[in-house]
Write a structure and sequence with these properties.
The chain has about 130 residues and is mainly beta. The chain has a single domain, classed as Immunoglobulin-like, CATH 2.60.40. The protein contains one helix and ten strands; from the N terminus they run αββββββββββ. The chain has a four-stranded mixed sheet with strand order 1-3-8-5, with no helix packed on it. Strand 6 and strand 7 form a beta hairpin. The chain starts with a helix and ends with a strand.
Amino acid sequence: MILATIPTALCAKPYTTGQHKVITENDNGKTIYLNKGDTFSLKLKENPSTGYSWQLSLSKGLSLLETVYSPPESSKKGPRLVFGAGGLHSWIIKAVADGRQQVKGIYKRSWEKETGKEQTFRLNVVVV
């Protein structure tokens, strides 16, 4: 009886919580599992004052809902902007189609050609 249930368990869909996930550079190269309709946040360090920014591409089963850049603040003398320092770029992405999806990012200046030495980010998303 136990042997009959093992193949069923192996074929089951991966467990997904339906909770909003927060993805960072620590998740580069990883795979996450979402239900169709779930959203997740991608947060990557960025310093556009140097001309560098993340350029993302999403597969067709993912939809970009929002993008926001948050500059750093100095907390020593209250909130004030720190010019020239990097901040955090956040994207909210929704899973809109079943299957294997992907988020790809490259950190570069928009006017420069790719050299293959740029910092990259890749996230595999399985929508069930």
